[in-house]
Amino acid sequence: MSHFQLALLLGMTVALGPLALDAYLPAFPDIADGFGIPHADVGLTLSAYVATLGLAQLVGGPLSDRYGRKLILFIGLTVFAIAAVMIAQATNLSELVSWRIVQGIGGAFCAVSVPAIVRDQVGGQEAARLFGLIGLIMFIAPAAAPSLGALMLVLGDWHWIFVVLAGYALFLAVVLQCALFPRLKPRPSAVTPVKTLVTNYLLVLRHRTTMRFVGIQVLCFSTMMLFITHASFIYQEWFGLSNSAFSILFAANIGLMAILNLINRPLLRRFSSVVLLRVQVILQFVALIGLVSVVAVGGPPWAVVAFIIAAIGCQGGIVPNNMANALEFFPHLGGTAAAMLGASQFTLAGVVSALSSTFGGDALLPIVLSMLACSAGAVLLALGAPAAVAREKAGGTAA
């Protein structure tokens, strides 16, 4: 299978997560009005999904090492689809949050399988390029998701958004069964009893370089999650924009991600992925300094939007470079290492997102200050990252 074909299929799979995160963002006001709750409380459904998406990967990753990527991925798609249907029938916030948690479990089993499949196939700079191509393909989903949600609101109501998500999960199951797994090289299963499972996680936790990249992923993703959680508030309530305008501006973030992702691919032939990661983390920090400054002095909306797009767009280069480096040291424990990365990323970002909704979701300055604080931590970790990760091969051989 060519890299493009593999990236296309895995990109479609990874897109399930962004669709579940972003498609219902334009519906936040409608959900709040329908349930008779404050707008900020709807953000808890997002935080609950993201936190579960992280924690459940700690289980899904080792299971995929033990029982194979296909079984765990298909279980995830099934659970995700069932939960989406139940969410569409929710009548109050408690039901919505509960089923979003279940949906997060299904999403986690899908999310952790994809980087593990990549690590099964390639490593090093080649993995960074493949992750970049997957990212480029999956950017279509978050770019289109708010527009899809807005379309559903025109045709019906917010419940249909989750019906469409259930249908997409079932469609993926058919496509992957027919086009992906029959063409992958078979991977021998690994026996992972509890003692070995704990040992394997300790191997990852004790690997300082890997955990540095995990930290960068957590902080950069938290920066993006803070924006996603409050995007509807910022654009629709703070600036009073329409659903269509919100969708366009949200898509602009993804557009810049895609551009930087495209630029990153040829640069990988000349520069280390760690160097490129460091530069793009710093650029994101600079953009957020500009954002905080504009918000603090009450600058015009166009300036706020420009700095948001610049900051969030940097994720297009940060994510593929960082993921490749974080998984580089554990070729035989791809699922476990990917689970640690995903669990840390989604769980801690979900906590940050929930705290921001609870304590600072009604004003713009606390939101952008929180984004800047997360980015500052990522810069500190990136500046200390080794310049030549490929030379550090260590650990990663446990089974």
UniProtKB/TrEMBL annotation:
It is a multi-pass membrane protein. InterPro entries: Efflux_drug-R_Bcr/CmlA (IPR004812), MFS (IPR011701), MFS_dom (IPR020846), MFS_trans_sf (IPR036259), Sugar_transporter_CS (IPR005829). It is found in: Cell inner membrane; Cell membrane. SUPFAM superfamilies: MFS general substrate transporter (SSF103473). Keywords: Cell inner membrane, Cell membrane, Membrane, Transmembrane, Transmembrane helix, Transport. The keyword RNA-binding does not apply. Residues 1-393 form the Major facilitator superfamily (MFS) profile domain. The chain crosses the membrane at residues 46-64, 71-91, 97-118, 130-154, 160-181, 213-235, 241-263, 275-296, 302-321, 333-357, 363-383. Its main location: membrane. It comes from the Bacteria. The keyword Transmembrane applies. Belongs to the major facilitator superfamily. Bcr/CmlA family. NCBIfam families: efflux_Bcr_CflA. PANTHER family: MAJOR FACILITATOR SUPERFAMILY, POLYAMINE TRANSPORTER 2-RELATED. This is Bcr/CflA family efflux transporter. The lineage of its organism: Bacteria, Pseudomonadati, Pseudomonadota, Gammaproteobacteria, Pseudomonadales.
